[in-house]
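Regression report. Comparing outputs from two consecutive submissions.

Submission 1:
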Amino acid sequence: MHSKIKVKYTFSGMIILFFIILIPVMDYSIKQYENIDGGIIRTDVKSYYAYLPAVLIYGDLKMTYYDKNPEKYMKWIRPKISPTGNRTTVSTMGLSILYSPFFLVAHAYASGSSTYEADGYSVPYHIALLISVYFYFIIALILLRKLLLKYFTDLSVGITLLAIGAGTNLIHYLTIEAPMSHGYSFFLFILFLYLLVQWREKPGWANTIYLGLSAGLISLIRPTNSLIVILIPLYGVNSLKDLRENFLFIFRSWKFIVLMGALVFLVWVPQLFYWKYIAGQYFYNSYGDEGSRFFFSNPQFLNILFSY
């Protein structure tokens, strides 16, 4: 007897398949990874990425290897000088954590290759970064689809996935500027929302741990994104009564909230020790004051809303 395997094709599932195919095709046509002079590791990515070669290849958090070949490394590293005179990278290390599994594969490949230098900056490392954001984006779409199908029809979910994937600037940050923070933050936001729903439906230690770690990573990539935790008291709020009930739920779940906060802090511990080692202080504004601060006395609301 021959058994027939029935495969159920859904519109939302086909949209995810569309992106699984589309992104590699676009990456291959653009070929950013072939521009070894900065196609992938450029602008802010230099800061996001700097931790990995410094720790895992050179074993030198102070990046003194920069002095041995400044002509080479000035292309890949954008350091600032800390108050103690050490080189430091501007960005926090959240993205390096998400890059790291793909970096390790690239480094293993480059180390065994006679073609590429295992220096953290040859072609395999560029391709690894490109693949990393693609991977996280597809996982985000799968989680978002699963979450939305709890509340909406498959057609509505499919249209939503298509609009988000192809109708926003996210597509730019999956291809042209792939390793920038946006695609990774998108993944973590979706993960946080997915885990928040799980936590509210079934409060427990495991869900609390996952939610706390995801919130920690979100803030470690871009500290201002810590605002996402406001969704915890605002979950499902349609009235003042809902808001009051949410606060009562949070009060009753104080042990979970304390654990969540402790896990966010735990995620930040390596960053705090890095700042202490490099800058002599646990809390260090590596961006400095010039151009990277709030100008509260000069708001630009109209320009933000309506200008280019």
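Submission 2:
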Amino acid sequence: MRLNWSAGPGDRGLDPPGTYAPRLTASASAIAAPTGPIRLATARTRRNDRSPASRLKALSYLDNVLARAEARAAGADEALMLNTVGEIACAAAANVFWARHDEVFTPALDCGVLDGVLRRQVIAACHALGVPVQEVYANPGRVGGAPMFVTNSLMGVRPVASLDGRDLPASTLVAAIAKAVSRAPK
């Protein structure tokens, strides 16, 4: 189900309507839940962490669309997006996590990250499992071949099989987090 909330109809252009007539629209469609690990490729298109819209679920997805197209052209399923200073931000349509030494890392919200529903559920599941979680500022070298996973409400928790064509290890910790999230009350 997709819900869209807008200010309502108005004149052409960028100015908001003189009188707001908020409009809520809903659409629904069935999709099969994706399964199995995915392949990531680092996109040249950057996530604009300085934009006030970077932390909003909005319809302005051009950067994400371009990043995903780059990833597909590189033979990957999804794009890893860096922010304007070269830090890991997110995937084109997912939050990013990695594990190292029984600890989980994810980009800090200031990196231009959407505070996704499943992101919050993963952090809560980690706390419930006694797994430390750090929200960090990290360049791609900090991942350094660590197990990774991505999350969003449509795909759940999905391990990353490879990053930029290099295989990443599977992780029992990632599997435990995925199991905990799938059992958590919604």
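Expected: both submissions complete independently.
Actual: both completed, but the second showed a warning that disappeared on reload.
Relevant detail on submission 2: The first helix runs from residue 62 to 73.
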